[in-house]
């Protein structure tokens, strides 16, 4: 179960996201997106939770909260399927 989190500060670290998402369940993995050429953060991340219930609860609770001066956009991550 994955959550797409955007509108993140350049200062955000994995531990910051783990701290707030852990309140809603077990966090399997966090991946903060980086620009491959510069290594700079791109302002979004994917957080993988253990269950759909935990995912839904985190999305509901964290959508729109302020973190480091930014209002978070939190949604279920879209999965691409090949046909």
TrEMBL record:
This is RNA-binding protein. Gene3D superfamilies: 3.30.70.330. The lineage of its organism: Bacteria, Bacillati, Cyanobacteriota, Cyanophyceae, Nostocales. Transmembrane segments: none annotated. GO terms for molecular function: RNA binding. PANTHER family: OS02G0815200 PROTEIN, RRM DOMAIN-CONTAINING PROTEIN. InterPro entries: Euk_RNA-bind_prot, Nucleotide-bd_a/b_plait_sf, RBD_domain_sf, RRM_dom. Keywords: RNA-binding. SUPFAM superfamilies: RNA-binding domain, RBD. The keyword Repressor does not apply. Residues 1-79 form the RRM domain. SMART domains: RRM (SM00360).
